[in-house]
Structures are given as C-alpha cells and as structure tokens.
Amino acid sequence: MSPESFKGFPPGDVRYTPVADQFFSELLPAVSDLAELKVTLHVLWLLHRQKGYPRYLSGTQLRGDATLLKGLASPGALERGLEQAVARGTLLRLTIWQEQGGKAAADEWYFLNDPQGRRAHGEVKKGTLQLDVHVVPAMPPPEKQPAIYELYEQHIGLLSPIIVQELAEAAEMYPARWIQEAFEIAVERGIRRWRYVQGILDRWRHEGKDGKQT
C-alpha cells in the first residue's frame, strides 16, 4: 500500500510548535513504539496551543481527538502510548474523580514533564491549585469524519468541541463543493477564520452562488 500523499507545507504565515533539543538527543532514541511517539508529539502540539498557566490535557479530551485517533493503528494504541509516555516520565498523570450524571467517574489529567508541568502537577496534588474540569464531547470517529474537518485543520487550526459542532452543521447544510471553494477563497485572501468561511457560505445560500460576489 502506497503511503498517503502530503501536499507539502504551505507558504506564508505558518504556525510552528517548538520542541526542546532533549527530545531529539535523549527521548527520541529511547522511544521504539510508534504509538508512544505519536501520542507524545500530539500532546506537545496541543499543550503549545494553550495559553497561560497551567497547561494540561484530560484523558477524555485525548480520547475524543479525531486527529490523534486517525494517526493511531487501533483504539488500544492511544492507551498504550499514554501508559508508555507516563512510565518513561515524558508525561505526568493525575487520576481525578468528578461527578457526571449523579455518578462518580474517573478521568486523568496529563502534564508535560517540564518545569511548568511539574509545578502544576505538584500544586494540584497538594490541593493548592484547582483545575477547571471540562468534559469534552467525543469527536466523530476518523472513518466518518467529514472533509470539512480536514479543511479546517489544514487551513485554520486546531479543532475544538464548539467548532466541531459548527462544522458538522455546515457539512449538513452546504454542498461539499461549496465548502471546499469557500475555504479556498478565504485562504487566497489571507483570512484564515472560520467566521469568514461561514459568511461566504451563508451569503451563497441567501443570494445564490453563481454570478454573485463573495
């Protein structure tokens, strides 16, 4: 089976995720499981896009991440990758309990093993730092993922539960060809915002697409 083709990195303003040199000199040579490597890189990517202090991820969030799941061979690969990353010391984990629907349910918080992550992990463990608990709804499984999600991730950025819901509604409302063209117009004009793409689609729906200005 030939590998999935990659169109290359786009020109212009592209976001980057910094990685410490120790990742390449110490961590990467020690990692032999592809699941651990993919999970570790994805966590680094997600945490870099968070702002302020503390930065952390929940197990629920990771298990509902369509992009992460798409790159793993099986559902068990995610759990294996997390376990190995924690055992290696790349990630720090705390198991927490929260009430959901009148019942107690367990979840995990994951922190990067860097100075900020170690500080947050220790403060939460001591009870001096209270984290917000966000129950993130699961995203659609990769095999049913509409193309609009890939367009958003390629041209705009990281999916969030709110954006996922809006994109799913748009995928049902507009033809796939319209969605593709609206994203292309936004990219050509250098306006990489979902609201702008949505505005194009709404205008086409109300005014008619062909022969109309966008």
Concise summary:
The protein has 214 residues and is mainly α. It is 51% helix and 10% strand.
Structural summary, described in words:
By secondary structure, the protein is mainly alpha-helical. The protein has two domains: 106 residues, Winged helix-like DNA-binding domain superfamily/Winged helix DNA-binding domain (Arc Repressor Mutant, subunit A, Orthogonal Bundle); 62 residues, DnaD domain-like (Arc Repressor Mutant, subunit A). Helices cover 51% and strands 10% of the residues. The chain is built from ten helices and three strands; from the N terminus they run ααβαααββααααα. A three-stranded antiparallel beta sheet has the order 1-3-2. Helix 2 crosses helix 5, helix 7 runs parallel beside helix 9 and helix 9 packs across helix 10. The longest helix is centred in the N-terminal third of the chain and has 15 residues. It is globular and about 60 Å long.
